[in-house]
Design goal:
Oligomer: single chain
CATH class of one domain: Alpha Beta
Number of strands: 26
Strand content: 15-25%
CATH topology of one domain: TIM Barrel
CATH architecture of one domain: Alpha-Beta Barrel
Structural class: alpha/beta
Helix content: 25-40%
Shape: globular
Length: 549
Amino acid sequence: MKFKIINGEVFDPTQKLNGQKRNIYVNNGRISLPKQSEIPEYKTCYDAEGLIVMAGAIDIHSHIAGGNVNNARLLTPEIHANFLEHNLNRKKILPSFNSRWTSEGTGYRYAEMGFTTVVEPAVLPINSFLTQLELEKIPMIDKGCLAVVGNDNFLLEALNKKKGQSYIDDYVAWNINSSKSIGLKVINAGGTELFKQTGESKSFLLDDVVPEYGVSSRQILEALNISNENLKIPHPVHVHCNNLGMAGNINSIINTIEAAQGRRMHLAHIQFYGYDNKGKKSFSSGSRELADSVNKNKNISVDIGQVMFKPTVTISSDIWKQNEAKSNANPKKWMISEVEDGGGGVVPYKYNDKNYVNALQWAIGLELFLLIKDPWRVFLTTDHPNGAPFTSYPELIRLLMDIDFRNSEISKINSHAREVSYLKSIKRTYSFYEICIMTRAAPAKVLGLNDKGSLKEGSTADIAIYDPKKPIDKMFSSAEYVFKNGIEIVKKGQILRHLKTSTHCLKLNYDKNIHKQIQNWFNNYYSLRLDEFEIDEDFFDVDNFRKIN
């Protein structure tokens, strides 16, 4: 199918287009640059006069599928019930896709906002088959996932026995290939294994050692970072640092940045590490120090994990942290699970703007957005659902773009948090161009999705069109048009059709002799066979998986 979008103000950082009027041509699901003589063939026309045209947005870190997500759904049925009751009381017809947070509902809600690609950032290899089946059912958006490695006993044993870097490389490659992932995730390296051994909830520093294996967090991170480099994985190692949520953890994340030794590294939800322990309450903002470190180290990219004042549920494979957080559950229920080589915790929570800690968390996230200078290295996330549901993105974008709105919201938070925060003194606002970098061009680049995040010739025709005459939050919550693979899926914020989409993955080369070693390990210590970890594509639609290398 051929069509054109005319008269729109185009924002595309990959072509340095900053609101210039351009016509966009689409041919067979791709952005085209037709010859003058071919333009009459593009008979279907969308007039975007007075509208903004961008590539489809990309979410680099959102928990949308897998064991922890499903446990959260089971633990919090009131989220569904409240949503259903609200709509039924208003006597609306309730299409099935309107319920939250089902697989279908996730895809539809993202599409309405103009998002066309989302990455699930934490897939335990043992849960990967279930996760991939669920990802397949999420419509409208392309998906990807990150394989969790770092606390698994096979790896720790290999480091302890000094099996060598190539051995570890092969093991990492097997994990990514077998789980159909696009990259590598590390969660509290060594700290989770310590918790599994001892049941203790305490600080675990970069040079602390997992007792049974004599291996430090630094050694784990370094080995995996080298593997990522050796295997030429496009996305840097995606790191959930030690000591998440602890006052004074600013030192943990800065030490992690230094430990990268100039190698590429992506640090996840850094708001939860921007905490110093100064002041009367022993909890203060470390945003300036953290932002300075990120600004100085060009090898580092980050996402924020912004807190918003909404009821949510926290989910994480950092079972140490979730075990500690269960006392703050709201409502008072929680779930902690441990499986072979991993686990997870689910704790419902409601962030309160009058609570000192919550208010300062909100401010710290915004401080980091505004103090980190390079929009190519900082990404829009709420760590969905941990900081807030992803449907909070439009309001978050408005906070970044509209200083009057931001100042109004600052005035509502806990007064002591407001006094100690740097936020009120920061005058920077984001432009449409910077928002486009942060939500389109930059995530595509850092994930290695070379045909996304752009409107240049040959790119996938993932396109979002917005009305800038609306308030910023309304504009980004309800796109005028969204096209996925050149197919119109949203008009005036309404879903037009159900669209089956793909899941991106890597296929890495490695020495297959590692299979024998892994098989022996499974035979000795696991309840499952090796082949039960390795995803069989025959269980999925023939076009479900899309290789990106």
